[in-house]
Structures are given as C-alpha cells and as structure tokens.
Design the sequence.
C-alpha cells in the first residue's frame, strides 16, 4: 500500500470473468428473466428518470456513445461502441462498460463490463416487447442476423416468452452455423435458412439484428404479413436501418424513448410527426398495444439508457448478495477530504521519492 488504506474508497468491479461466473452460477434463463423484470419495474417508474438521447460521436465506420440516466437516487452511464466492420478484423461490433453511482454523494457504487450485460439487457428488452405485443398463440420466431446478439435474443425469447421454434438467417452461413451449434444442446427447434424469405415463412415474430452502417432493407414490405410482430434492433444509428419504410407505414410502431428513436431508429425514415407509442405506456396501460390479430406491430428498439440502468441495478443487487467482484482502486478517499495533496506527500514518504 503506497498511500494509506483509508486513502482509497474501493469500488466493486465486475470484470468479464466475474460476469461469466455470475451467469454460470445463476443460470442464463434466470438472469434474463430477472433483468426483464428489472427493466419492466424501471419502465413503470418512467417519469422519475432523467431522459436524454444518447450522446453519440460518429465516424464514417462506427459510433461511440455515452448513455446516461438517473432516477434521482442512483445514476448510471454506459460507454458503448458500434462498429459493424470490426468483425472482419477479429473485433466485436459492440463493446461496452458502465458505472452505477450514488446520487447522494456522487460516488461510484459499481463499475462493470457491459458487453455481456448489454447482450443480456437487449435480449431482455426484446423479450419484454414481444411478450407485450406479439400475437396470441405465436410459436415461431425468425432471427435475421446471427451475430453476437443472436443467441441471447433466442435465449430470452425462449426463457421469457416460451418460444421453442426459431428460423435463422444470416448473409454469412457460418454465423448461422455458429448460432445453431451454440444452442444445440437446449432442445430448441433451430432451422438454418438460405434466405430471408425462407426464414420468415410461418414466423409470427421476426427479430432483425443485423449490423451494417447504412440504410439496409433486411425486410421488404411483402415479407411482413398480417399479424406479425417485428423486433427491429439492428437499426440503431443515423443512416443505419433495417426495415423498408412501407412496413413502418402499415404497422403500429412502438419505441423506447421517442426523441432518441426518431434520430436513431428505423423511424428516422418517416416524417418526424409520424405517430409512435412508447412501450412503457403500453406496460402501464396508458396506451394500446396490439388491438387486433391482423395488426402488424414493430418494436423499433435502439437501446435506451434506462435499460442499462436496470441491468446495472440488477447487477449491483447480485454483487451485494454474493456475486463475484473485484475491488477497484478507483476513488481517492483521504482522511481529510480537502487534503488531496497529502496523498502525494504520503506516497513520497512510503516510496522515498520526491514529488518535485
Ligand atoms: P455482429 O456484427 O456480431 O452480427 C451482425 C450479423 O448481421 C453478422 O453475422 C452479419 O453477417 C449479419 N448481417 C449483416 N448484414 C446482413 C443482411 N443483410 N442480412 C442478414 N444478415 C446480415 O453484431 P451484433 O453485436 O450481433 O449486433 C447486431 C446489431 O444489433 C448491430 O447493428 C448492433 O448495433 C445492434 N445492437 C442493438 C442494440 C439495441 O439495444 N437495439 C444493442 C446491441 C446491439
């Protein structure tokens, strides 16, 4: 110890290793169900939260974003990137980390990896939207885009909504093979398809989770029949969409936070006044969800800061039980809070150095 132990306020840190251990110990299904519940609880407290579209720094090939929010008691932010070409270089499209802090003192309470946690909360959010909006008796899901998020999307739709039949398509057949192979032991019905058309055949729910930083048309209008529910989660940046505009015009569109989704979601293709419904209002019974069996519902999911807050809140609760964490030497905490300089002096004494 180069200063004194009391000079540091150690912050619990959930590393990638710790997160892997937590999910294994607790079970992925249970984690996904719990995170879905935490998101639903926080959506029910929607008005308490600070809300702002995320702060995005765009480059021609990607984006780095900060996602802050607070419920007045706790504050959270996530740092996340989105670089669709990364996988060609052996890097992930999406990586993330984040912090939960105490509003009363401003001190961080938890620091965490959030690449895995983002996959969990994105899947939980899709499952929440699907549970709320999918047609009654829906049995089959098409998953278009079989990259890093896809297994989590499938696991959440299975754990939270009870789906067992999935039809998979990716422009890269190897990605579909990996996804199906990773889930083989679960006893789900997984059908690898050779085209989007084949994948959506008979599917009452379609999830698009592709990555391409441009206006894409993953689903054309003719591919979405009456009564289908779509989770469009890969169109999440200006200039990055997945659905043909005509689908959105025929559908009832549901979003997380309208102001952010108008900038980032598939609805960036529509008139800014086009009516959309926020999912939390449907959950609270303040707005209609699916009103008839033939209605097309689209959840234009872009990922909102409150979902990350919920995921971090879930994680902090697990850490305060017995989930593994490390202690991060992140915050100075000198005995006299105004004697920050004294820490430098004590370091010099302990190390026989001179601060100059
Ligand atoms: P990834 O790069 O690991 O996987 C994307 C997959 O899409 C790849 O396998 C790729 O081959 C496939 N693909 C690209 N174009 C396609 C096309 N035209 N048809 C079919 N497949 C196609 O990315 P990921 O981490 O799985 O993320 C998927 C998308 O979800 C990204 O766009 C990411 O930005 C987005 N995302 C959204 C949220 C959210 O909250 N809404 C959260 C995380 C990630």
Sequence:
């Amino acid at each position: 110890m180069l200063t004194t132990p009391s000079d540091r306020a150690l912050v619990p840190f959930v590393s990638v290793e710790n997160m892997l251990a937590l999910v294994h110990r607790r079970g992925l299904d249970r984690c996904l169900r719990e995170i879905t519940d935490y998101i639903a609880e926080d959506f029910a407290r929607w008005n308490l939260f600070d809300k702002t579209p995320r702060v995005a720094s765009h480059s021609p090939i990607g984006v780095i974003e900060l996602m802050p929010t607070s419920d007045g008691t706790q504050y959270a932010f996530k740092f996340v990137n989105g670089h669709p070409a990364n996988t060609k270089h052996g890097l992930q499209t999406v990586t993330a980390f984040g912090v939960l802090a105490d509003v009363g003192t401003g001190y961080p309470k938890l620091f965490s990896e959030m690449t895995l946690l983002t996959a969990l909360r994105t899947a939980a959010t899709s499952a929440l939207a699907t549970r709320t909006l999918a047609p009654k008796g829906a049995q089959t899901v098409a998953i278009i885009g079989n990259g890093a998020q896809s297994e989590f999307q499938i696991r959440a739709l299975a754990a939270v909504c009870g789906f067992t039949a999935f039809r998979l398509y990716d422009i890269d057949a190897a990605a579909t093979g990996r996804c199906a192979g990773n889930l083989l032991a679960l006893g789900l019905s997984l059908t690898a398809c050779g085209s989007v058309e084949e994948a959506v055949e008979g599917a009452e729910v379609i999830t698009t989770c592709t990555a391409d930083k441009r206006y894409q048309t993953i689903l054309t209008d003719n591919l979405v029949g009456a009564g289908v529910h779509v989770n469009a989660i890969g169109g999440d940046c200006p200039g990055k969409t997945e659905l043909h505009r005509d689908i959105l015009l025929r559908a009832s569109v549901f979003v997380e936070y309208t102001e952010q989704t108008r900038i980032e979601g598939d609805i960036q293709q529509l008139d800014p006044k086009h009516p959309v419904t926020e999912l939390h209002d449907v959950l609270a019974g303040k707005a209609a969800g699916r009103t008839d069996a033939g209605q097309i519902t689209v959840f234009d999911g872009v990922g909102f800061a409150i979902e990350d807050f919920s995921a971090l809140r879930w994680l902090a609760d697990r850490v305060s039980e017995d989930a593994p964490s490390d202690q991060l030497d992140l915050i100075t905490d000198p005995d006299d809070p105004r004697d920050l300089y004294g820490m430098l002096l004590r370091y010099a004494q302990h190390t026989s150095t001179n601060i100059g």
About this structure: Residues 7 and 333 are 4 Å apart (CA to CA).
